[in-house]
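For reproducibility, we list the full input for the NAP complex.
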Amino acid sequence: MLVFAVQFDRFGPSEVLTVGAFPEPHAGRGEVRVRVRAAGVSPVDVALRAGRSPSSEKIDLPHIPGVDAAGVVDEVGPDVTGTAVGDEVFGAVDVSRLGGASAEFAVLKFWAAKPPSMSWEEAGASGTSVETATRTLDLLDVREGATLLIDGAAGGVGGVAVQLAVARGARVIGTGSPANQAFIARLGAIPTTYGQGLPERVRALHDGRVDLALDVAGAGSLPELITLTETAASVVTIADFTGPRLGVRLSLGEFGGEPSGHHGLAAAAALFEEGRFRLPVQEVFAMAQAARAHALAERGPRQGKIALTAADSW
Ligand SMILES: NC(=O)c1ccc[n+]([C@@H]2O[C@H](COP(=O)([O-])OP(=O)(O)OC[C@H]3O[C@@H](n4cnc5c(N)ncnc54)[C@H](OP(=O)(O)O)[C@@H]3O)[C@@H](O)[C@H]2O)c1
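The corresponding predicted structure, in tokenized form, follows.
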């Protein structure tokens, strides 16, 4: 059977995205297939499509972008327990495939039950942001009473990391553009702006103590983050490849062979039901409008995620 999916058959600007027909995918061992209700758009998807990601050369064209999706399970692979056809779930594809989510059907590698009151858009755009935030907070061992600085707090990963760290009892300072200061405060962090003078601004904010720092922006702030925490061992980055040279851990998840934060999905769903977590969704587009969604994703400032919703008929 052929099914619809967003696709691109050459690298380039967002306009290369169209809707095409593909053979239906099937759930492999430990996987489920969902009829997609919503999918996320991430910076990684945009970089892959533009041909400027180191992984662009690893994908075959035509390619279906997107790694995050939510939907209704319609096929359960071997060795899956606790999930049945008809369950509403959210999660992500096998990220090593670098795509496959913005389609009529997607195969998920990790997932959790979608809380009934969580919108499809929030659920569809959550998977890898929750996984990445959980993995890096685990790596930093963020606990009650710690002061954590998050550089890039208003974005997809940062907006989740702020809330999950606050839920762990940490005091969080989050950086963003001037336009995002109130947004960061609403997420639960003490806001400040990023860029030059960061150590001075952070020290002026409170008692000056910063125990831990998480760089989700990859904008070159690692020396300042090390200055603030006083040791590179207390800093983790997900986006700055100069990190290891400075003694900072670069967390790449499955790409780096690390333990994943997949357990974070069920935990985030539980926090959602307690009213302590939400996924900020900046804007929602129909799948057929994926080019507009990618164009928006290439512009700042960010306020959380961008989502695609699946139409009843493609
Ligand atoms: N290693 C991993 O496992 C992993 C997983 C997911 C993502 N990533 C990578 O992590 C990065 C962030 O992903 P995302 O989904 O959170 O992206 P995003 O939604 O685009 O957010 C990026 C954030 O960076 C902020 N920012 C922009 N310029 C900055 C600067 N000079 N200093 C500090 N912050 C700045 C933006 O703030 P304003 O909007 O306020 O300007 C925005 O909040 C991307 O490079 C992505 O490829 C890595």
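Residues 130-256 form a domain with the Rossmann fold fold (CATH 3.40.50.720). The first helix runs from residue 43 to 50. Both points were considered when choosing residues for closer inspection.
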